[in-house]
């Protein structure tokens, strides 16, 4: 479990974290979302004791991470590719991780195979592609089968198969009862994997809760599948209804499915499917952040 | 769950730093260069002695020649290597990566100090043993020779640690090398020249005797034991004080290191 309470951090007088409080529970994937520069990486570096907070606490299983008797078994960490040793080979890096964790070095080959880097272990990490670097970073985080995982933007650079693979790994870890804290600015990806979400914007928590609760609390949207999506979007625009593409669908909010269907029918557009859905995580984040900004400017 | 101990971290750091190919190659080259320097100089001196005319007295090679020259070369080369290699960890991601896995900074830095200290010792000790065996005759016997080697090895180890501390403090290889040159060459040359400055000139000149290169060299001087044991003990204390000072400053700097590659 990762417990963060009233965390504050400033750089050169500029506040980057302001009273951040949340918990990444055991058995749960907690998505830590926010735009670039929101403070996600800073928060994670503080949890990993890479830097200190101005005030507040960040505890892993009840104590600061640097006080852990077995750090690698308490928390596996991936903070990005700049925290990888570029001049070491993948094998040497994982062997180092095994040694400091008290794990038999013979596990290195198994670890490399588990992240599909079996043939690249003898190459230097600097020669790896972006996705390969992420895989080796993840392998190092999993060396001692930790009770907690903290990953900063792990899906960046992974191909679709890699993303699917990572989802499976994280889900399996959470199903074993481990706490997984996963940060990303790709809200659509987090929607598929996170159980709980913590939203951060400009160093503030703007919302947090179970994924379903957050999405249910937002505006409903209507998803329409049609082969004539361009024409349909023009129709909605003419009616003053905000519409956007959402994958293969056209998504509108603020009107009922009945009204959306009638507009399409009146314009002679054939609709393949029409369904009401909860807001996407992106919609929830955008509306929450907008409310926060409005509240701040009113003050 | 295995508790992370100093021994585990030391073992991992030793394999990472001391046993990587580039380190072994460099230390091998330094040792060979030192041996060649010593053998070459002794051979030259013997040749000169054998061919000198009666009017010119040429002294036989001494312990200074057989051990002192290689000691000076090894110390110089090893310190430059230490400055560059240990600072490079901060630019190639190794320092950040190891800190993620070993969040106890004292344990991590302590392991590195032990590794570099041992490397410095062995860098001098291994070629030194060979020289002691070959030149024991001119060094007062095997016992004296081995004791000289031991002192020189300790000296290289301590001076290497001073440079390691500087590299940890500045985290830039080029900067660390410049500071090393300042400490080792520039300051010892300039400070005696300042003896003419009124009031403080004498103190500045005297301070030269307590600079890192001076105290570590005196530590390695076997002739001091017996003839000026107090000076030798003071040299040991001063060397250890320099090591402690630089490592404390390095630790304070390392505490603020946030792992971002520079």
Tell me, briefly, the overall form of chain A. globular
- What is the overall silhouette of chain B? globular
Largest sheet of chain B: none
The helix/strand class of chain B is: mainly alpha
Structural class of chain A: alpha/beta
Q: In percent, how helical is the residue content of chain A?
A: 25-40%
* Number of DSSP helical runs of chain B: 11
Order of helices and strands of chain B: HHHHHHHHHHH
Number of helices of chain A: 11
Number of strands of chain A: 13
How do the helices and strands follow one another from N- to C-terminus of chain A?
EEEHEHEHHHEHEHEEHEHEEHEH
Assembly state here?
heterodimer
Rounded mean pLDDT of chain A is: 89
Overall helicity of chain B:
over 70%
> Uncertain segments of chain B of ≥5 residues (pLDDT<50)?
none
Outline the biggest β-sheet of chain A. Answer: 6 strands, mixed
* Integer-rounded radius of gyration of chain A: 22 Å
**Quick check: average pLDDT of chain B?**
87
Low-confidence parts of chain A: none
Identify the most extensive interface between protein chains: A-B, 35 and 27 residues
Beta-strand segment tally of chain B? 0
Q: Summarize this, please?
A:
Chain A is an alpha/beta fold.
Describe the structure.
Chain A is of the alpha/beta class. Helices cover 37% and strands 27% of the residues of chain A. In chain A, the strands form three sheets. Chain A has a six-stranded mixed β-sheet, sandwiched between helices. In chain A, helix 6 (160-175) links the parallel strand 6 and strand 7. The radius of gyration of chain A is 22 Å and the shape is globular. Chain B has 262 residues and is mainly alpha-helical. Chain B has eleven helices and no strands. The longest helix of chain B has 31 residues, at 21-51. Chain B is globular. The A-B interface holds A 45, 48-51, 65-66, 68-73, 77, 79, 82-88, 92-93, 95-97, 99-103, 125, 140, 144 and B 1-4, 8-9, 11-12, 15-16, 92-94, 96-105, 258-261.
């Amino acid at each position: 479990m990762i417990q963060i309470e009233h965390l504050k951090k400033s750089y050169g007088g500029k506040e980057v974290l302001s009273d951040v409080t949340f918990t990444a529970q055991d058995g749960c994937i907690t998505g830590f979302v926010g735009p670039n520069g929101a403070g996600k990486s800073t928060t994670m570096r503080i949890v990993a004791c890479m830097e200190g907070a101005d005030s507040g606490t960040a505890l892993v299983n009840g104590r600061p991470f640097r006080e852990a008797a077995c750090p690698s078994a308490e928390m596996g960490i991936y903070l990005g590719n700049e925290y990888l040793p570029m001049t070491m080979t993948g094998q040497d890096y994982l062997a180092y991780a095994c040694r400091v964790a008290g794990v038999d070095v013979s596990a290195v080959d198994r670890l490399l195979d588990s992240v599909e880097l079996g043939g690249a272990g003898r190459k230097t990490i600097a020669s790896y592609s972006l996705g390969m670097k992420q895989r080796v970073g993840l392998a190092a985080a999993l060396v001692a089968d930790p009770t907690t995982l903290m990953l900063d933007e792990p899906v960046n650079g992974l191909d679709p198969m890699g993303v699917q693979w990572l989802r499976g790994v994280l889900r399996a870890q959470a199903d074993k009862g481990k706490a997984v804290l996963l940060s990303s600015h790709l809200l659509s990806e987090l929607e598929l994997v996170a159980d709980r979400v913590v939203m951060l914007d400009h160093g503030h928590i703007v919302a947090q809760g179970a994924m379903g609760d957050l999405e249910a609390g937002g505006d409903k949207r209507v998803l329409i599948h049609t082969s004539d999506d361009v024409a349909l979007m023009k129709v909605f625009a003419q009616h003053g209804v905000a519409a956007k593409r959402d994958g293969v669908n056209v998504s509108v909010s603020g009107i009922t499915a009945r009204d959306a269907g009638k507009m399409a029918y009146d314009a002679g557009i054939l609709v393949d499917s029409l369904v009401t859905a909860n807001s996407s995580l992106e919609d929830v984040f955008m509306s929450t952040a907008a409310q926060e900004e409005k509240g701040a400017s009113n003050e | 769950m295995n508790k992370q101990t100093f021994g585990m971290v030391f073992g991992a750091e030793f394999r990472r730093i001391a046993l990587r190919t580039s380190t072994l190659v460099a230390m091998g080259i330094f040792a060979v260069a030192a041996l060649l320097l010593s053998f070459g100089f002794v051979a030259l001196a013997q040749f000169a002695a054998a061919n000198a005319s009666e009017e010119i007295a040429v002294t036989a090679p001494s312990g200074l020649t057989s051990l002192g020259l290689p000691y000076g070369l090894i110390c110089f080369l090893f310190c430059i290597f230490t400055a560059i290699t240990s600072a490079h960890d901060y630019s190639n991601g190794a320092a950040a990566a190891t800190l993620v896995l070993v969040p106890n900074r004292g344990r991590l830095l302590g392991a590195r100090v032990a590794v570099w200290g041992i490397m410095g010792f062995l860098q001098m000790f291994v070629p030194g043993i060979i020289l002691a065996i070959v030149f024991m005759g001119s060094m007062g016997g095997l016992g004296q020779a081995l004791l000289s080697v031991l002192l020189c090895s300790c000296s290289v180890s301590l001076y290497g640690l001073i440079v390691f501390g500087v590299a940890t403090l500045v985290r830039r290889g080029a900067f660390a090398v410049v500071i090393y040159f300042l400490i080792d060459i520039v300051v010892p040359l300039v400070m005696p020249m300042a003896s003419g400055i009124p009031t403080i000139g004498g103190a500045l000149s005297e301070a030269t005797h307590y600079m890192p290169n001076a105290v570590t060299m005196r530590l390695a001087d076997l002739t001091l034991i017996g003839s000026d044991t107090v000076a030798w003990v003071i040299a040991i204390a001063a060397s250890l004080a320099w090591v402690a000072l630089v490592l404390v400053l390095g630790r304070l700097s390392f505490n603020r290191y946030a792992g971002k590659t520079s």
